[in-house]
Amino acid sequence: MSVLVAVLWGPVYAAVLCGVAAVAVAYATTRKPELWHLAAGTGLCAAGVLAQAFAYYLILRDGSLGPHGSAAVLFLLGLQFFLHGRKVRRAAQLTLSALRRHREENGLLRAAEPLGERRPGARRVPFAMTSVFGAVVSGLGSLFLCFTLLALRDLLTTGDNPWWASLVVAALCAQAVLFIGLGNTILRTGVQYYDTVVSSPDDLAGRQYVLYLRSFRDDHRLSRPHRIPLAGAWLAAAVSLGQGEEERIADALSWAGPLVGVGAPGERVPRAGARRMYLPPDDWQRPVSTMMRGAALVVIVLGKGPGTLWEIREAMRILPPERLLLLVPMKEKAYDEFRELAGDLAPGVLPAYRRSRALSSRVRGIIHFEPDWTARFVALRRPPPLEDPLVGSLDRAMWPAMVRLTELELERRADGRRGEA
After folding, report:
1. Is 136:76 a contact under the CB 8 Å cutoff?
2. How far is CA 47 from each of CA 83, 86, 158, rounded to the nearest angstrom?
3. Which of 151, 174, 194 lies at the terminal end of a domain, its last residue?
4. Do 240 and 357 fall into the same domain?
5. pLDDT > 90: what percent of the chain?
6. pLDDT of residue 4
7. What are the TM regions of this chain, as residue ranges (predicted)?
8. Rounded mean pLDDT of the chain?
9. What is the pLDDT of residues 115-164, one digit of tens each?
């Protein structure tokens, strides 16, 4: 919004808009003091956006990058401010989690431990270099966008233009979208090239983890950032620097352990979010069943594939209800079709759909189970301002499931101590 205001009316109005946002942030922080860390990250993001907006304004006003490329430097600094602010917001969101606080109070929240090993053949490159390269590519795309606007202004204000002038503007616009999308993709997922993977289920023995199961066909949807209203999913993925939904799900479930999922066969680069483990396509059910037994929590994303139906039935067969959680990434019609496809899942039956309001994520709700396998559908609700919409809503929706799982773990710990005595 600030970038658009700066381009149309100048940096002064953009600064006023950011000032109003800062007042709103300060007010929210005053009402809830624990939000100060989240507010600081939001302020860094706003400062970065304002710097980029001012860079756009200078380029459009002067028709150049300014002396010594000052506008380009300002844009790159603004982008780095925004990325750092996003990291601060992510850390603050975890600090605010009521689930993590409850687990910590009961002595069940473990510190993050290294999990997995480097992929064979993966070269180690400092992430800072990847970040700078992505910022440069995205900055080039932004320059192409400025040149597109300048060319469009000249095209509309001057007469007797050659027939190919419109084609030049269209080509510049396409280049802008391409470079911005490529740069943002590098910034979001470049670190995945150097991420670690879990080599076998034996590496998880004695470790606390959350097993994340889903249809491989849903990976591309859940790896994208939140959808932008009135824009296609591909455009949102191109212009957004936000985390993908799987990364947000991993943050929301961090109270139970790191997220571990089976990677798609033939996948060259693991997607951001769950730590990947690769299994043979013709022998995956046995190791998945083994990992279910060892997981602190099993999370299954509903989908129409036969593998998902088998995973749900297998989890209900071998797990207590407190250790199973279902994510619903679909609207009411698709969910009803899944219920018909699944039939009666003994010992539980999938509940009726409950609509989610004012949330742009693909995950619309969760299903957790009572001790007698009675299923409960909890629709996601938008959290208070400043919080991450998906992480904050999942943090609240999973509270009953987390409490029952915590009670189960405390009972088992007490039984183990009595057995030792």
Report:
1. yes
2. 11, 12, 36
3. 194
4. yes
5. 18
6. 46
7. 6-28, 35-59, 65-83, 127-151, 163-182
8. 78
9. 766 665 555 555 556 667 777 787 788 778 777 877 877 777 777 778 78
- Cα–Cα distances in angstroms (integers) from residue 199 to residues 89, 104, 262, in the given order: 32, 30, 11
Q: Same domain, yes or no, for 215 and 317?
A: yes
CATH number at residue 267: 3.40.50
Q: Tell me the CA distances in angstroms from 336 to 217, 305, 359, 394, one per residue in order.
A: 19, 15, 20, 22
How far is it, in rounded angstroms, from Cα 76 to Cα 72?
6
Number of domains in the chain: 3
Task: Give counts: helices (H), strands (E), the chain.
Answer: 15, 9
Task: Quote the CA–CA distance of 313 and 188 in Å, as a whole number.
Answer: 35
Rg value, the chain, Cα: 24
Task: Let me know whether 152 and 211 are in one domain.
Answer: no
pLDDT for 229 beyond 60: no
Q: Which domain holds residue 308?
A: 204-420
**Cα–Cα distance measured from residue 92 to residue 241, given in angstroms and rounded to the nearest whole number:** 18
Residue 326 is predicted with a pLDDT of 95
225 and 341 together in one domain: yes
Is residue 349 domain-shared with residue 290, that is, in the same domain? yes
362 and 327 within one domain:
yes
